[in-house]
Amino acid sequence: MIGILEQGDMDEALDLAKAQEVGDTLMAKYPNHPWVVSFQGRVLVVRHLAINDVLERGLGRRGFGFVIHHLKNSSAKQLAHSAVIAGGQMLEAFGLPRGPWDGAEPTVPKEWVKRHMRTGVLQ
Questions:
Q1: Which residues in the chain land under pLDDT 70?
Q2: Helix, strand or coil for residue 85?
Q3: Is 40 strand, coil or helix?
Q4: What's the pLDDT at 49?
Q5: What is the model's pLDDT at position 23?
Q6: Domain ranges of the chain
Q7: HSE on the CB side for 98, CA within 13 Å?
Q8: For burial by CB atoms within 10 Å, which of 12, 37, 54, 70 has the most?
Q9: Distance of alpha carbon 99 from alpha carbon 113, whole angstroms
Q10: Residues whose CB falls within 8 Å of the CB of residue 56, separated by 6 or more in sequence, listed in order
């Protein structure tokens, strides 16, 4: 659920409405999945909290998600359609169903490895 904390300008109000449409569409298409939709700098940022959590715990990677560009020139329905496609691909990549989520733990793709903490280089 997205709520308005302060009025903001017209672009922010439109971004908020588009983020709400994307979130509602993801929840309808992929029920029970913990989606979080926000906007930053005229793009939408979509995260799945369970995937984000497993990547943070397992690989030390925070804030994982996907970005949808062209917020200003796209309708809410166009953005929602893009989010459904990208969200479904993300679910499949982490071994989660493209349907209702049963709470199963996502699996990190085996080719993903933890960053070396001292150098920041992938090992």
A1: 1-9, 71, 113-123
A2: helix
A3: strand
A4: 96
A5: 95
A6: 10-93
A7: 10
A8: 37
A9: 28
A10: 62, 64
**Residues 6+ positions from 24 with CB-CB distance below 8 Å:** 80
- Nearest Cα to Cα of residue 99 among 31, 41, 35: 31
DSSP element (H, E) containing 44: strand 43-48
In this structure, how many other beta carbons lie within 10 angstroms of the beta carbon of residue 113?
Answer: 11
Task: Kindly state the DSSP code that residue 122 receives in the 8-state scheme.
Answer: B
The b-or-e profile of 41-56 (16+ CB within 10 A means b, else e) is eeebbbbbebbbbbbe
Query: What tokens appear for 72 in the block?
Result: 């200003």
Amino acid at 36: V
- Give residues with Cβ within 8 angstroms of 105, minimum separation 6: 50, 54
The tokens describing 10, both together, are 């017209």
pLDDT at 43: 86
Q: What is the pTM for the complete model shown? A: 0.80
Q: Which tokens is 59 given? A: 């690989």
CA–CA distances in Å: residue 122 to residues 25, 111, 116: 35, 11, 6
Provide the pLDDT for residue 6: 58
